[in-house]
Amino acid sequence: MSAPSITKSPAKLHFHSLEALRFFAFFKVYLLHLPLAIPSPALNYLKRGGGIGVQFFFVLSGFLITYLLVADKLARGQVDLRRFFIRRSLRIWPLFYALVLLAFLLPDAWADRWGLHMVGGGYVPDWRFSFSFLENYKMLLTDNSPRTTPLPVFWSLCIEEHFYLVWMLVVFLLPIRWLPLFLLACLPLACLCRFAEPLVLPANTQVDTNDLLTHLDVFAVGGLLGYWVATDYVGFSARMATWPLPLRYGLVAVVLLAVVFQADVLPYVPGSLFTIFRPLVIALLFSALIALFLPAHSAVRIQSRVLAYLGTISYGLYVFHIVIIHVVFNYCLVHKLAIDTWGKGAVMFLLTFGGSVALSSLSFRYFEQPFLQLRDRLTQS
Questions:
Q1: How confident is the model at residue 23 (pLDDT cuts 50, 70, 90)?
Q2: Domain locations in the chain?
């Protein structure tokens, strides 16, 4: 394969609208976890399949991390592993370990009182897995979830961390021209792993595909887009400009319909052949959607400071929302309040979503930002 045609662009591009897209990915997960008993088919459609929000996160990560690593290698001649590791660690680790410590240090009586123990039970957390970003493998081994909130949603953060480590080493070791081959090879490899996993795991395993191998294609599809943008942003933008505007908005509509009606158009049926390829199909749709927003002068963009800010604090929203939901839901259980009307559902939404935004904003400003400032000081170049 010949070397990529590289068009010079700024060392680090800012892609408008991606923060908003990151928020929408979170919001789909939030809707899944929202405990409503309102008899509404439309609402049930919106709530179903929150896992697609996590897949959107993974595609976004695949794009951004590949773009950053490839751009760094092109600019410096090699990936600065120390710089990349510091930047990722100081973004993810502080809040992650703060909440892991909370889960382990909180007395059981308090966790029970506040509803931070899962209603359906779960295993007692094991510090060896929780502190080493291996919670997802503990879930696979036990076919269960940790009983203490927010550890049950940390499986995706573990996969993200494994992805960072693998990707930085691959981009460091491989010549630039070989990276597309690696990314393309990830597509059939992930499908093969999803096919083989039921043969390896015990029958009727509920917690499956909680590992990096079965998500490689989701990251790699975003990675192929990131590679293209990093190596030829001008050419990429010119190619996207040839897409007619109706086609662009039509693609947005197709993705929205696929997300809302995924149970019908993208059904998850364990053991079926389509289920093996389903994540790849979803990743391709999301990657095409992301591509629409990347050109600097794209007609398709999301111009909202509110959505951009919510995307900026989406990491906090993801880890805090489940805590807020469980606390509010526990109050409803204790007081025998069924959330079965639109009025009660609206109150639940305001309390849980508003509480998640408030707590995430405080966390971002007073806890996360000092680490981000330290990150910037340590990685100045």
A1: very high
A2: 18-378
